Amino acid sequence: MFILSEEQCITCGTCVEACHNKALQIIDGALVHDPDKCNWCGHCLALCPRDAIMIDGDGYDVEDVEEFNMLTRPTPQQIRRQIMMRRSIRRFNEEEVTDDELSYILEAAKYAPTAKNGQDNFLLVVGTEEGRKEILEDSMEIIGKAGRECAETMPGLSAFFMMKYKMYKENGEDGLFYNAPVVIYVFSDNLLDGAICASTMMQMVDAQPGLGACYLQLAADPFNKDPELKKKYGIPENKQCAIAFALGHTDEEFFSSVPRKEVPVVLK
Fold first, then answer.
1. Which numeric CATH code is attached to 77-134+170-249?
2. How confident is the model at residue 67 (pLDDT cuts 50, 70, 90)?
3. Which residue ranges make up each domain of the chain?
4. What are the C-alpha distances in Å from 72 to residues 78, 118, 204, 239?
């Protein structure tokens, strides 16, 4: 719900100029909002210099709003260092992920950008030993089936699938989640939205000392191959699994970044 304080609004037009959907206009000296054109991105709220606009209700909570200024932003040097220090973690210790640590990560998903502000992401968080064993078993059966079915058409992919399947079946080896205490699946109507959501959460993982994570594309595949798996775990039918990631604490300690190849760039 769009809420306007007429007492505080000075009709400066800042919000009108910024609204790309043209949901705001100044008519006869008053700010007018058209809910049919609004996608509830909140750009007007964030830009208002007089705190005259608020969005509340219909799933939104005014208590979520925090004030900040440019001085509260991390510096480019800090962001650069965090990006360079990121590592894919596949060795986890037995320390549990705390509720506070997980809540920061899930909150990050809430603020991930989505196309047209659709906010269409959906998360499956597997954080119990029983839950991990069940979804690992279900996933490995689908991976094994996929490996057998593509043996002639895609022998390389088939060999990879069957290697993971046999390691699990014969030795009980978890080559999917790497024995992580928590696995988070990201579903969305739009795979790009889901990928951005996962990346946003990963930034919060890296910001918390001792935590580590690893993207798991193979873990996402079973949900996209077998509709029955989505039904079993309560995933809406229209959602696709964009990515999953393993999450936990690690004893690994890193002392430097590593070299990377330059990304080809075309300048015009």
1. 3.40.109.10
2. confident
3. 2-64, 77-134+170-249
4. 12, 27, 17, 36
Reference 240, options 230, 249, 253, 252; nearest CA is 230
Q: Where are the beta strands (DSSP E) in the chain?
A: 2-4, 24-27, 30-33, 53-55, 122-126, 182-188, 211-216, 240-249
- The helix/strand/coil state of 243 is strand
Q: Quick one: tokens of 39?
A: 């996608």
> Which single residue is written with the structure tokens 């932003």?
73
Contact call for residues 2 and 19 (beta carbons, < 8 A): no
Cβ(182)–Cβ(97) under 8 Å? yes
How far is residue 95's CA from residue 98's CA, in Å, rounded to a whole number?
9
How far apart are alpha carbons 150 and 160 in whole angstroms?
Answer: 11
What does the DSSP 8-state code read for residue 2?
E
Torsion of CA 64, 67, 71, 74, to 10 degrees: 0
- What confidence score (pLDDT) does residue 72 get? 80
Spatial contact of 41 and 117, defined as CB atoms under 8 Å apart: yes
Q: How confident is the model at residue 58 (pLDDT cuts 50, 70, 90)?
A: confident
Which pLDDT score, from 0 to 100, does residue 66 have?
A: 87
Residues 6+ positions from 208 with CB-CB distance below 8 Å? 101, 104
Q: How far apart are CA 187 and CA 236, in angstroms?
A: 9
Cα(217)–Cα(200) distance, integer angstroms: 17
Q: How close are the terminal C-alpha atoms of the chain, in Å?
A: 44
CATH topology of domain 2-64: Alpha-Beta Plaits (3.30.70)
The CB-based long-range contact list for 95-101 (8 Å cut-off, 24+ gap) reads 95/181, 95/210, 95/248, 95/249, 96/181, 96/249, 97/127, 97/181, 97/182, 97/211, 97/247, 97/248, 97/249, 101/208, 101/211
pLDDT at 45 (0 to 100) = 94
